[in-house]
Amino acid sequence: MGDTRGFLKIKRRLSGFRAVSERIKDYLEVSLLPYEEHSQKQASRCMDCGTPFCHWTCPLGNYIPEWNDFIFKKQWQKAYELLSSTNNLAEITGRLCPAPCEYACVLEINDEPVTIRENELSIIEYAFKNGYVKPKLPLRRKGKRIAVVGSGPAGLSCADQLNKLGYKVVVFEKDDKPGGLLRYGVPDFKLEKWVLDRRLDILKKEGIEFICGQEVGKDIKLKKLIKEFDAICLAGGSRIPRDLNIEARNLKGIYFALDYLKQANMQVSGKKIPPDELIDAKNKKVVILGGGDTGSDCVGVANRQGASKIIQIELLPKPPESRQPHCPWPKYPLLFKTSSSHQEGVERYWQVLTKKFIGENGKVKKLFCVKVEFERDEKGCVKIKGIPNTEFEIDADLVILALGFIRPKTENFLKELDLELDQCGNIKTDKNFITSHKKIFACGDMRTGQSLIVKAISEGRLCANHIDRYLKVIH
Ligand SMILES: Cc1cc2nc3c(=O)[nH]c(=O)nc-3n(C[C@H](O)[C@H](O)[C@H](O)COP(=O)(O)OP(=O)(O)OC[C@H]3O[C@@H](n4cnc5c(N)ncnc54)[C@H](O)[C@@H]3O)c2cc1C
Ligand code: SF4
To answer: How many Å lie between the centroid of ligand 1 and the Cα of residue 183?
Structure first.
C-alpha cells in the first residue's frame, strides 16, 4: 500500500464519456480511456484491506489490492503480469464488467469505492501500448487435441488456457467471425471490434485454430468431433430469446433485440444487409420492451440510427437509487441505473404490461398497455395485477423485444447424442464440468444460462482445468 492516507485525500473519479452531441453521430466507444496519472491517483485510494472483499467477489479472483499497489508505484509490467494470471480478456472486462468487486469494496461502506474496473483497463491498455502483451507459445505440445464449440468469452478463455498447457485447440464457430456476443451482441459504442481482433490475433499466433462459419451439430457432426478430438468443450452461449405471445405478435415491425443488435454490428463492420431484411430505426417511433442492459444497448443503436422517439418499457418497478436494508454491503445490489445510452435520449416507463399489439396493413402501429402493481398471495407468491382504468396506448413503428434469454440452442446436439439438460434447458454437467457424455464438457452461458462476461471467462478457465485433469487421468 503506497499511500496509507490516499483514500482520505482523493475522491473517486471516473474518466467519463465523450459528449453526447459528439458520440451520438458515430459508433466509436463512448467511454474515455483513463490516463496513467489519473489511475495512479485512483489506485492510491485502495486501502489494501486485510480481507479484500473485492477479491472475494470477483468471479475471477483478480488480485485487486496487489495490482492497485503496482499501479500506484508505476510498476505497470508487474501489474499486467498479475492481472493476466487470472483474466484472459482484461481489455474486455475493463470496459464492460458491471464490477461486482466495486460494490463489495470496503470503501463503499461509508465512501465511494475504488475505481477497480477502470484501473484494470488502465493496466491492460498500458500493457498493449508498451508491448508487454506478446504471443507466448507453449514450451512443448502434448500431442492431444481439443475442440471448443463457440468463441464467446467462455470458449476463448477455455481455449487460451488449454493452448497454454500445450494442447492443440481448434475453436469451431457458427458465425463468420469469432467473438460470440462480444462481436455480434455488444454494440461498437461499448466495445470497438479492433479490441477483440487484437486479442484474437494473439491467440491465433499462439497456435489456436479458428474454424468459422461451421455450426457443430449441423455442418459438422458432434460425433465426428468425438472421433477426431480427445475432449470437446461446448461453449455455445444461451441465445433462445424470451418471446411475448400476446395478440398480434406476428405483425411486421416486431423483432428480437439480438437480431437488431447483430445487424447493427454487421453494418458497422461494413457488411450490407439486404433491404428486405434490414431493421432500421431511422425516423421511426421505437418501443423497446425490457428495461435491462440489452434493452439499453438497443436504445443506443436506435438513437444512432436516427429514431424520432424511443420508449423503453419495464414490467417491474423502478429499482431504488441506493442500497436498501435487505441488501447491505457487500452484496451486489439491484439499483436504478442510467447507462450512457440512456443519457443519449429515451423515455423510460416502469410497471407497464403490454397486453396486445395493434396493427395497420400488417404492420405494428401501437401497443396497448396497462399499469401494474405487484402483490403477494397467501402462499407468498408474487402476483401481477393490472391497475383499473390505467390502460393506455403507445404509438410504435418498430418494437424490439429485449426480454432476456431462456435457454441455449441444443436441439441438434440432442438429435445426435442424448446429452442431459438441467431443469432450465441448459447443458447439464457434474461439478467437474463433464456432461452426460464423458468426453464432452460444457461451460459459460450454455451451462449456466445467460450471465456476465466475467462469469463466462471464469467458467472457461475452470472448464479448461477440468479437461486437463481428465486428460491426465485417462491417458
Ligand atoms: C446485447 C448484450 C449485451 C451484453 N453486454 C454485457 C456487458 O456489457 N457486460 C457483461 O458482463 N455481459 C454482457 N452481456 C452478457 C455476456 O455477453 C454473455 O454472458 C457472455 O457473452 C457469455 O459468453 P459465452 O461464451 O458463454 O457465450 P456467447 O458470447 O453467446 O458465445 C457463444 C458462441 O457460440 C457460438 N455457437 C453456438 N452454438 C454453436 C454451434 N453449434 N457450433 C458453433 N458455434 C456455436 C455462437 O455463435 C457464439 O459465437 C451482454 C449480453 C447481450 C445479449
Ligand atoms: S476492498 Fe477496496 S479498498 Fe479494500 S483492497 Fe479491495 S479495492 Fe482496495
So the answer is: 9
C-alpha cell, 216: 457443430
Q: Which ligand is nearest to the CA of 105?
A: 2
Please give the grid coordinates belonging to residue 208: 489456436
The residue type at 274: P
The rounded distance, in Å, linking the Cα atoms of 339 and 433 is 35
- Can you tell me the distance from the alpha carbon of 79 to that of 119, in angstroms, rounded to the nearest whole number? 10
**pLDDT tens per residue across span 375-415:** 988 888 889 999 999 999 999 999 999 999 999 999 999 98
Show Cβ contacts of residue 281 under 8 Å, excluding neighbours closer than 6 positions: 301, 302, 305, 306, 307, 310, 398
Confidence band for 473, pLDDT divided at 50, 70 and 90 = confident
Q: Is the whole-model pTM more than 0.85?
A: yes
Of the bound ligands, which one is closest to the alpha carbon of residue 191?
1
- Is there a contact between 330 and 53 (Cβ–Cβ < 8 Å)? yes
Q: Residue 244 Cα, ligand 2 centroid: separation in angstroms?
A: 43
Nearest to 391 by CA among 372, 419, 417: 372
Lookup result for grid cell 439491484: 334
